[in-house]
Amino acid sequence: MGDEDLWRVLRGIGDMPHGAGQIAALEQLLRRADASDDRHLAFATRMEATTGYIYGGESAKSFVTFSWCLAEFDRDPQPYHQRHMHQLLWHFKSMVSGLLKFPEVPLDRTYAVLDDMERRYRAGGHSLQAVHKHRFRVASHVGDAEAAAHWYRLWQTTPRDELSDCAGCDPTSQVAYLADAGRDAEAVALAEPVLAGRLTCSEQPQAILTALLLPYVRIGRGDSARDAHREAYRRLRSNLADLWDIGDHIEFCTLTGNEARAVELIERHLDWLDRPPSPAAAMHFAATAAAALRQAGRVGASTVYRRAAEGQPAGEVPVSALADELAETATGLAARFDARNGTTHQSEWIARRIAVRPEGEHLPLSASVRRRPDRPTRPAEAEPAVPLDQGAAPTVADRGGRPRAGASEPTVTLPADAGADELLDLAEESWGRHDRATFRAALVAYDDGFSAADLAPRTVAHRMALRAAERGDQDDIDGAIEMNRAALDLYREAAEELPAQVVAGRLGVLLTRADEGAEKGLTLVLAAAEALDQLGDARQRAAGHDRVALALLHRERWADALAALDRAPADAGGDRHLAARIALHRAHLLEQLDRLTEARAAADEARRIGRELGVGELVTAGCLTYARTVDDPADAVTACDEALRVAPADAELPVRVARARALLATGRAADAVDDFVEAVTLCVERGAEGDAFLRWELANAYRMVGRLGEAAEVAEEAVLGLDRLGAQAQADRCRHMLAGVYAGLGEIDPALALLEQLASNLDGPDNLPLRAQVLEEAGGILYDANQDAVAAERFATAATAYGLADLPLDELRARRREAYAWFWSYDIPEAVRAIEVVDGLAATLAGQPEQSPPVTYELAMAAEAGARVLTEADRLDDALDRLTGVPDRLRSIEAFGEATQVEILVGELLLRLDRPAEAEPLLRRVLGGLPADSRPVRQTAWLLARALDLLGRPEEATALRTEHNVDPDD
């Protein structure tokens, strides 16, 4: 590679985002530059590397490159050194700040660099404003308040010049100083005109917004603080160099009562402590994280997720242990700084950070969870979910969950003279009617008033069977099985065959819920149903066959289960509650069999009966199944609305999720956001798994309504949660969405980082198509950001992956885009090489006997791309030949805009080949077919006017230019 090529590589690296990728590229170029013996290139590369190290999170390396450049500058001044003079003097500021952050660097070294900086600034006739600022920083670091105040005054009263920090960074340092002094109103007043202006520095506005977090809170501007947190953190979260500022955001979350949010930030960045940008950043982050974790422990958190680190697997670790570990890290580093500085300032400052606790009122920050102190979570064991006759099997309200009754219950009056059997019969009857309050009251009265030793075995067995139901409702399946077995033994000892068969059926259903004993359970429930057909009344027969259906449902034998239900008496023996439950089970089975019309009818019957009976559980379950099976999502929303009006408290979660999804399907994404937020909140309140999946859906809803900031925040939470669950496929799909959100926000670096991670994750042969898509998307983002050379490389890698996946059309498209990227990077030789590859792929596809519209389109666009590249390579005849027949082929698939685009290019080539007579009618026809306000009009008019000039018709050309406001010199 020649020197000119190396200079081109350096220019490309300068366009790369700061981070590990850019640093690796710079270090590779440094080796090549030194080997080439080009002093200017070696100097310029190290200057670029100094900036890359500072902003890429490896500032210690910047000391070496800066020192090399400074020595080279002093030893043998060259003309090119003067061109870099401003940047070299600018780097002095980063060196002073950076040296302070490493306790192993003697303080004298920092003072020496400051003195050298002042000497050079004076020699160059520059203002000392930046020098005073950095002397202030040193004084603040060592805790010399008097010196800090002195240098602050000089900094503020010395005129700015071109070496002063930017219009955002200078006020950021002032805001921090004023905030530390308790002058919050002044800090905000200083910052707001800055925020109202245009900030172009790579560190802004996130740095000044971070500095404003606490001042905003302390002057009562909570909304401003929340907005500042969201915007600033979003910009900081992907840059290792910003670890210190991320610690500020963790502390802000702790102070404002957002412990869960603080823990999420810690989990997301904890592994950065393995490679911190500096010991100072590690110290600050560790201290703020320790404080946050201790507070999280106080409000009930017990563990925190720690990503895999070297020699340490990923997993949950105790909150208290991690808090202590981080506090020890922070205090140890503070002690090292104090030993270097000869003060105790850093240790005292870190001790205050570790002791931070919430202050003032809670400030809601989360875009996914609402704090709802007025809606306490009820214990999971508070309500039986399913009538006793169903053997404590799950209802179809949510396939995996069970709706429970609400928190409030009516006062129950029991018969004053009720005996033991009467109370148990009342409890059983109440359970079947979904009357939880009476069920519990009757059992409490029984337990308080009677002893098993004084009762008949049949009565004791009955209480045992009801106790089994209670255990099953608490998800204690083993306990429920044990109680039912005991009840069955007692009934059989008492020769009570009918209730024994009822209990046997319930026991069989429970056994089928687990793999072990499932076949025995199925045999038991089938035998019980057959016995009840002989011994029981119509209701008992119906319940027996319903239990068979449930047992088969648990084994996913949908058709057999439906056949069992068909054997149940149509009216369930007059028990309307049981009839509703049978209708629900039928609806669920029909849904599984994809017989949706019948499933919908059964669900509608269940909710109709539920309405008549006034049982919210039945209505809710019927509405949910109806919503899942209805064709029109608007009908699903209506069903969910009804469910929300009557749903028991613990059934609200599945209803909210169903309603949110239905709202999305109707195009009401803004309304869906509220339901998803409620669903996530319910999930978090109850400690239920699954909130990560719901956050993913919520993030998508935010994305659909254009609230990209919230979409990014929630999707980040979802990715973290999905990773924790080990759901990599879902986490990667969420990352894919998140990358698109970042791109929509204009946050190119984090979008590319996510896509790179995705491409790395999708390394298996089965994942090649998706890997190729991800790489192509990365190329598209780079291309749109005018990073064309890097984009071309991504497109090339994507094309290779498409080829390996045997997707020739996609491979052609990616190669075409590669050629365009090289074209716009002005690397025409590479563009021509890419077109040669495109031609080979196109020839293969063109040889197919039948071409689909997508193939026709890609072949035509490949021809156009090749023509543009060859035009730039001055191969005009070859370029024109490629376009023969292309417009007609594009029109045949109704790609009219692209056809016009190609014809304009043909007209341009004809003019450049001095063939205006052929160009003039073509361009006139194109111009006549274009809408008056379309973008190609002026280009076509300019070309047509040029053709008329060449044809000796200047009057017509002038009139055309006037009509379309075309400048002949454009």
What features would you describe in this structure?
This protein is mainly α. Among the domains are: 149 residues; 277 residues, Serine Threonine Protein Phosphatase 5, Tetratricopeptide repeat (Alpha Horseshoe), CATH 1.25.40; 88 residues, Serine Threonine Protein Phosphatase 5, Tetratricopeptide repeat. It contains 48 helices and 2 strands. The chain has a two-stranded antiparallel sheet. Helix 33 runs antiparallel to helix 34. The radius of gyration is 37 Å and the shape is globular.
- Backbone structural class: mainly alpha
Please identify the top-level CATH class of the domain at 384-407 and 415-667: Mainly Alpha
Mean pLDDT, all residues: 89
Shape: globular
Radius of gyration: 37 Å
Query: Any idea what the CATH superfamily of the domain at 384-407 and 415-667 is called?
Result: Tetratricopeptide repeat domain
CATH architecture annotation name of the domain at 384-407 and 415-667: Alpha Horseshoe
Query: Would you count the extended β strands for me?
Result: 2
Number of helices: 48
Share in β-strands: under 5%
- End-to-end CA span: 38 Å
Unreliable residue stretches: 373-407
In the sheet with the most strands, the strands line up as 1-2
Query: What does the main sheet amount to?
Result: 2 strands, antiparallel
